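Quick board copy: two proteins, each given as sequence then tokens.
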Amino acid sequence: MTWDLLVMAPATLDVRVLVRLVQQEPNYSTKGRLMRVRITKGIAVTTTGLLAGAFGYGAVNLGPTFWKVPLDMRLSFHAELMKMNSPVMLTAMGAAALSSLALALQTSGAERRLAVGATALTGVSFLVTRFGNVPINAQIKEWAVTSPPADYIEILHRWDLFNRTRTTTAVVALVLLVIAQIGFSPRPTCASTPSN
């Protein structure tokens, strides 16, 4: 499996290839290592799931609602929402990226590649948020107390595009981690012979 496969769009991702790869048995040499990997997987899946869920909720529920309410209401609500949303989402992105990276460092083979892919995709979510959504959030905060510019609809559509992008990358990262979680049945390897 190549790196290119991990960063493909979800519509072109060949699930059969991923399933074949995750059926390879990883080698865990000690029970302590096995427990660390299991805990790290649990943390990675949980934090990335929370991130994907938060972005998904925003994309499916908040995004369309923003377009249905009066503009002044949208701007005021959006500006207030970002006050709490910023630290929460930055924490979620950081926790998801770090736990995925920790999983990549603790594993090998296909499992590592899946974790590296999840780490990279979570990083993309962060970069899109930092350099796409955050600057527009600052503009929206300003518009809430003044007035929006003539091209505000185009800017809001761009915010939606960034939001869909970061949501997609977070969801795909979660899918990769779930495949790593359910596709591998980690067991410590035993060198001893079975007793009769």
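And the next:
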Amino acid sequence: MIPVYGAPLGEIGYGNRFAPNYVVRPALFTAEECERLIERFTTRHAEDAGLVGEVSMPDIRRTDVIWLKGEDTDEWVMRRMMGFVADINREAFDYVLGGFDEALQLTRYRAEERGHYDWHSDRGGQGFGRFRKLTIVVQLSVPESYEGGMLEVNASGREEAMPRERGTAIVFPSYVLHRVTPVTNGVRHSLVTWVHGPSFR
């Protein structure tokens, strides 16, 4: 396989032999870079996150977010993600993609709020959600710093827990069902983004 940023692709989950359900890329971000992103929560205003269309439903989703909207200090993050997506799409998915039409999102799940996001897909609704094709989640927290908060995907009728290692990126089609289980101790941080394109045929 083609190395991406100095490391090979990790686990690839196939629901069938034609297309992957998800791809895991270890160490897309270094520990220092993960800390830089987590520190945004001390310098910027976080807002309660809703569902697609900004609908608030705490029983389904309870987390807060910061949007990275093109500040100079965030440009390196977008450059990293753009290069990574180009490589991972060529290597594993081969989708027709347009670009990043939404800002990158930093998420924080806190045990004191039982932070979680129940089963959902990222594709659908109105606006940008209709055109999401790939979802990328980067694990930012040290795994031992929180309990619960498992990212799980269910692309083929089987729930699969994703790796928790810091800096790891998990990529899956945006129509795939996934969730973050309740955080029961500590805080889980992640970086989430979506890549858009023409509708699936």
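Board note added afterward: Residues 1-7 have pLDDT under 50 and may be disordered.
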